[in-house]
Design a protein that fits this description.
By secondary structure, the protein is of the alpha/beta class. The protein has helices at residues 6-11, 28-36, 57-67, 78-83, 85-93, 107-115, 127-136, 158-169, 183-191, 201-204, 213-221, 232-237, 253-258, 262-267, 269-281, 305-321; strands spanning 17-19, 41-46, 72-77, 98-102, 119-124, 140-144, 150-152, 174-177, 196-199, 227-230, 246-250. Strand 2 (41-46), helix 3 and strand 3 form a beta-alpha-beta unit. Helix 2 (28-36) runs parallel beside helix 3 (57-67).
């Protein structure tokens, strides 16, 4: 038995679980593993800029090859495609099942995505963003709460944002994102009116994910209270995010030293950037960033992605059948 929703019908998948397109982490192997288990995998192109430590046409081509014949999507940070339009062309030439856009105006890309029959997924962080995505013709809207790992805003929670977006989305499926790591999260999202969930951090703690073994071990050891939203990792990496955005990451020596002292970090950027990239290349998580969401409390091991998909789906099915243990007498 499987949970059928508007999302599963639209994407022709078995389980309403989507892999978050984590830049530099959600590669072709991980995307394929999620899709082959009945969910939907998305390769995370992120900034599309090798300056971030990954990305570019050659990197994406390698990941597309690694995905093989699996049904997958491709995701990019929207404003980066304006800087590297060749990456959009590259992805569209491969006719992915879906194209995932985050953090910017979708309209310049939406027309071509829709015209080719590719499913357009837009991730938003507030109601204005949801309205903009609907106007652009989004086929799926991902409502990302502040609990999510990686970049987003510090405002709306997953629960309240999902409810509000469901109320304005009409027939467009809404996917909840932020702090969701197990079947309880999926069952809860469905009860909110969402058609599925987007999962990031839990899928990083898998053998198929890119990234260092040290980062994956840290994901199993850290807890949600160890995370914070900060700009310092963007500053040191030379990534200019729009006002209002920050990244949720596991606090480490670097963030403890510089969070709250961003101006001073900028004044010492040449020295600190060199030290940061040296640490990142060595897999030193005491200095390099490990983005992670508030679902960390539920991550205790490194497990194959396919097992996670099946485990989350089975737990949600069980909870929904038993009405989450509620006493209705």
């Amino acid at each position: 038995m499987a949970i059928a929703t508007a999302l599963t019908r639209l994407l022709s998948i078995t389980h309403p679980i989507i892999l978050a397109p984590m830049g530099g982490i959600a590669g072709g192997r991980l995307a394929a593993a999620v899709s082959q288990a009945g969910g939907f995998g998305i390769i995370g192109g992120g900034y599309g800029n090798p300056k971030a430590g990954y990305g570019g046409k050659a990197w994406m081509e390698e990941q597309l090859r690694a995905a093989g014949n699996a049904q997958i999507g491709v995701g990019y940070i929207t404003w980066s495609l304006a800087l590297f339009p060749e990456l959009f062309d590259q992805a569209m030439e491969r006719s992915p099942k879906a194209f995932f856009l985050s953090f910017g105006d979708e309209k310049p890309f939406a027309t071509r995505v829709k015209a080719t029959g590719v499913t357009l997924i837009c991730q938003i962080q507030d109601i204005d963003g949801a309205k903009r995505a609907l106007d652009a013709g989004a086929d799926i809207i991902v409502a990302q709460g502040t609990e999510a790992g990686g970049h987003g805003k510090s405002g709306r929670t997953t629960l309240t944002l999902t409810l509000a977006v469901v109320d304005i989305a009409g027939a467009v499926p809404v996917v909840a994102a932020g702090g969701l790591s197990d079947g309880r999260g999926l069952a809860a999202a469905l009860m909110l009116g969402a058609s599925g969930i987007l999962v990031g951090t839990r899928f990083w703690a898998t053998p198929e994910a890119l990234g260092s073994d040290a980062a994956k071990r840290l994901l199993t050891e850290a807890r949600s209270d160890d995370t914070l939203r900060t700009r310092v990792f963007d500053i040191v990496r030379g990534l200019d995010w729009p006002e209002g955005y920050s990244g949720r990451a596991i606090a480490n020596d670097f963030s403890r030293n510089w969070h709250g002292h961003e101006s001073e970090l900028e004044r010492n950027l040449v020295r600190e950037a060199e030290a940061y990239w040296t640490a990142a290349r060595a897999g030193d998580t005491s200095k390099s960033v490990v983005f992670a969401g508030e679902g960390l409390d539920l991550i205790h091991d490194i497990k194959p992605a396919g097992d996670i998909v099946r485990m989350v789906a089975a737990e949600a099915e069980r909870l929904l059948k038993t009405r989450a243990g509620a006493d209705l007498n």
